[in-house]
Structure formats: C-alpha cells, structure tokens
C-alpha cells in the first residue's frame, strides 16, 4: 500500500469522466426528463380540458332535449286547442245554420198560413153570400153585401 | 486455496493485497529473486514489497486498468442512453439511467442551493463510478487474480477502491474543486477570512487558522480514507473467508456478500453526498 503516481492518474481519469458526463451525458438525459415532464403535464391538462368539455356538451345536450320536449308539448297543446276551437266553431255554425233554417221554415209556414187564411176568408165571403142568398131566397145586392162581407171577413 | 502454489496463509493474504505496480528500481537494489539491479536502475513490475522502494513515481497498473475500464463502462452506458434519449416512452436502459440521474439530481437539489453546472454531473460520475469500482468486490476474490496468474501476471487487485491511491485521487480532486470554488465564488479575501477570522475572532488568528485548516484538510482525507477503509476491510474479510475449506466458504461468504451489496452502495452514496455537501459549503458564505 504505497502512495504513488496512481493518485495522479486516478485524478486525471476522474476529471475526464466528470467532464465527459457534464458534456455528453447529463444535459440530454435531464433534458429528456424535463421534456417528458412537460409533455405529461400538457397531456393531463388536455385530459382535464376534454373532460370539462364533455361535461359542458352533456349539459348542452340535456338542455336541448328539455327544450325540444317543451316545444313539442307546446305544439301539441296548441294543436289540441285549435282542434277544439274548430270543433266549437263548427258546432256554432251548425247551430246558427239550423236556427236560420228553422226561422226560414217558420216564416214560410206563417206565409202559407196567411195565404190559406186569405183564401179561406175569400171563400168564407163567397159562402156567406151564397148562404145568405139561399136563406133570403133572393139575390142580395151584391155590391152592398160585398162590403159587408168583406168587413166580416176582415174580422175573422 | 491457501496451500496451493506453496503459499502460506499470510503469503496468500499479502498476495491478494498487493497491487500490480510498475516503477523504477534503483541501481544496486537486490530483487526478490536475488538479482541485482544494474546500472541506471530498471523499470519493471514490482514483486513482493519492491513497490515501497519504487517511491512515488510508480503506477498501479491494475488500479488504473480497472478504474478507467469501469469509468469507460459508465460513460459508454450513459452516453448510449443519452444519445437515444427520447421524450416519449423510454426504453429499459434509458429508464434505468434516468432513474439514477433523477436520484442524483434530487440529492443535489436537496443539499446544493447555488447554481453550478458541474456539481450534478460530478455527483452522478462519483456515484456510478465508485459503485462500479466497489462492485468488483463481489466477484469472488480468487477468480480474476487466478486467471491473471495463469497468464503470467504476478499480482492483480481488481477492486480499485481498495487501493488508497484511487480513493485519495478522487478525494483530492474533490478537494481541488473545493478550493477552486471557494476562491472563485467567495473570492480569495473571504475564503482567507473564513480560514483565519473565525471561530475565535481576529485576535486568535493562529488558533483559528489551525482549527479551520484541520477542518479543511480533514475533508479530503476523511472522504478518501472512509471509502478506502470500508472497501479494504470488506475485501480482507472476503480473503479471510476464502482461506476456509471450500465446502464451508459459502456459509460465510454469501451472507457477507449480501451485506456487502448494502455497503458498496452506501459507500458510493456517502462519497457522493459528502462531495455535494463540501462543494455546497464552498459556495455559501457564512
């Protein structure tokens, strides 16, 4: 165990290896490590963002669905209302039409009755005159009696 | 094992703890086999305790070979991962490397608060390199040295961190960085002030210098010797276990090896953390 020049040789070797390590080994390896760290951080960030986006999209989808349902419900309700309205309108129209027809029929009937009455009245006058002629046995002054009969007929 | 090759027990242990040292033997030195070194000395591989005679200008070939080889393995592996680094799904190798890089980066961030591009790669290099060097300890002590011996290499210590030169080489490099950053970040004035004007005030300057000097110098010494001591002791236990009869060795070596997995990782970790802390102290003013 003697101290000899090996100590110098070892020191030279030592400095060479340290220099080499500093120049060619350390920078690329730590560089790769740092780079990878950055990449992973970015990846995690992206994943976070994506999950946030997904959450947002889900929310949007449910909202759209809800809106769609609401709209559909409104449309259906409106349609129902309209259908009811149409039916009601139709009913009203029908009633009106019926009433109108009834009125018309009534008017016609009244007219008919009046016409019949007139005809009857005219005939009643003729009959009354004929009856009176028969009863009196003679002809009645048709002109004077006609006036009388007309008065009578109008009273009927 | 001990009896093989005519080695005694202590001979076996010493053999396993001797580095493959290449250096110059002085003229007139009587070698292990009785030869006398000729005129002008000779450059050769040390046998026995010849390394002591070689003095400072000798080199442990095995330590250099394995430490540089393992360092190369480290930078090759991590460079491969770094070249193919993708920000997408990482492969197995990249995953593994990134795991270590992140672990080291976390340690640096938790104890080093100034801005410095060197500290984190430095910590990574120390952690992985020291771990790999320590890991050689788990290879059964006889395998590679025995193979080497068959190929004519007399000594081979395959765990570089059991060589005090290797650990001190690193800790002194760290020490140099401590001094460098102390001077360049704090400035010479403040650095010298820290060494001399505290903790006792300016009238006790010699005492301050002594205390702070010891404090400063203890850093590289403790850093290097802690690693060395732990690994050396661990290696020693493995060697002692290897002296037992082969059929009983596993009873001790397996638990020790499993325990050692913890030790080698822990020592690499401690070396790294202390380096970060020391450099952090070099950056921060008190």
SSE arrangement:
The complex is a heterodimer of chains A (156) and B (286).
Chain A lengths: L5 H131 L5 H14 L1
Chain B lengths: L8 H8 L4 E5 L16 E4 L4 H5 L4 E2 H23 L8 H20 L7 H17 L7 H8 L13 H23 L1 H9 L8 H38 L6 H35 L3
Antiparallel strand pairs in B: 1-2, 1-3
Helix pairs in contact in B: 3-5, 4-5, 5-10, 7-8, 7-9, 7-10, 9-10
Question: Mind explaining what this structure looks like?
Answer:
The complex is a heterodimer of chains A (156) and B (286). Chain A has helices at residues 6-136, 142-155. The mean pLDDT of chain A is 90. Chain A is rod-shaped and about 195 Å long. Chain A is built from 2 helices and no strands. Chain A has 156 residues and is mainly alpha-helical. The relative contact order of chain A is 0.03. With 286 residues, chain B is mainly alpha-helical. Chain B has helices at residues 9-16, 50-54, 61-83, 92-111, 119-135, 143-150, 164-186, 188-196, 205-242, 249-283; strands at residues 21-25, 42-45, 59-60. Chain B has a 3-stranded antiparallel beta sheet with strand order 2-1-3. The longest helix of chain B has 38 residues, at 205-242. Chain B is globular, with a radius of gyration of 23 Å. The N and C termini of chain B lie far apart (57 Å). The model of chain B is unreliable at 1-5 (pLDDT under 50). Chains A and B meet through helix 1 of A and helix 2, strand 3, helix 3, helix 4 and helix 5 of B.
Compact overview of the structure:
The complex is a heterodimer of chains A (156) and B (286). Chain A is mostly helical and 156 residues long. Chain A has 2 helices and no strands.
């Amino acid at each position: 165990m003697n101290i000899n020049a090996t100590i110098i040789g070892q020191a030279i070797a030592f400095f060479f290896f340290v220099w080499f390590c500093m120049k060619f080994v350390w920078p690329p390896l730590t560089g790769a490590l740092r780079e990878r760290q950055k990449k992973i951080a970015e990846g995690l960030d992206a994943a976070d963002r994506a999950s946030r986006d997904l959450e947002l999209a889900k929310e949007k989808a449910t909202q759209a669905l809800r809106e769609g349902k609401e709209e559909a419900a409104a449309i259906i309700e409106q349609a129902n209302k309209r259908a009811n309205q149409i039916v009601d309108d139709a009913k009203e129209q029908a009633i009106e039409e019926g009433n109108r027809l009834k009125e018309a029929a009534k008017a016609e009937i009244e007219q008919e009755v009046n016409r019949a009455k007139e005809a009857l009245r005219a005939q009643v006058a003729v009959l009354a005159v004929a009856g009176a002629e028969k009863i009196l046995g003679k002809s009645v002054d048709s002109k004077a009696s006609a006036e009388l009969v007309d008065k009578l007929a109008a009273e009927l | 094992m001990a009896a093989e090759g005519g080695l005694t027990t202590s001979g076996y242990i010493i053999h396993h703890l001797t580095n493959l040292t290449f250096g110059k033997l002085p003229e007139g030195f009587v070698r292990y086999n009785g030869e006398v070194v000729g005129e002008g000395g000779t450059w050769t591989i040390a046998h026995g305790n010849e390394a002591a005679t070689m003095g400072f200008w000798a080199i442990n070939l095995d330590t250099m070979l394995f430490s540089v080889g393992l360092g190369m393995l480290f930078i090759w592996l991590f460079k491969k991962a770094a070249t193919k680094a993708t920000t997408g799904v990482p492969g197995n190798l990249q995953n593994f490397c990134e795991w270590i890089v992140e672990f080291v980066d976390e340690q640096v961030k938790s104890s080093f608060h100034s801005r410095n591009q060197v500290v984190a790669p430095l910590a990574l290099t120390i952690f992985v390199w020291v771990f790999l060097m320590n890991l050689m300890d788990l290879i059964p002590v006889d395998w590679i040295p025995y193979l080497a011996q068959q190929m004519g290499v007399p000594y081979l210590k395959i765990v570089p961190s059991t060589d005090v030169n290797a650990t001190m080489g690193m800790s002194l490099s760290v020490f140099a960085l401590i001094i460098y950053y102390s001077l360049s970040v704090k400035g010479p004035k403040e650095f010298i002030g820290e060494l001399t004007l505290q903790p006792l005030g300016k009238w006790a300057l010699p005492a301050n210098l002594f205390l702070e000097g010891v404090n400063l110098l203890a850093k590289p010494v403790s850093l290097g010797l802690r690693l060395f001591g732990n690994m050396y002791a661990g290696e020693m236990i493995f060697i002692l276990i290897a002296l037992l009869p082969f059929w009983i060795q596993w009873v001790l070596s397996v638990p020790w090896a499993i325990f050692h997995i913890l030790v080698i990782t822990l020592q690499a970790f401690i070396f790294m953390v202390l380096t970060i802390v020391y450099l952090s102290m070099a950056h921060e003013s008190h």
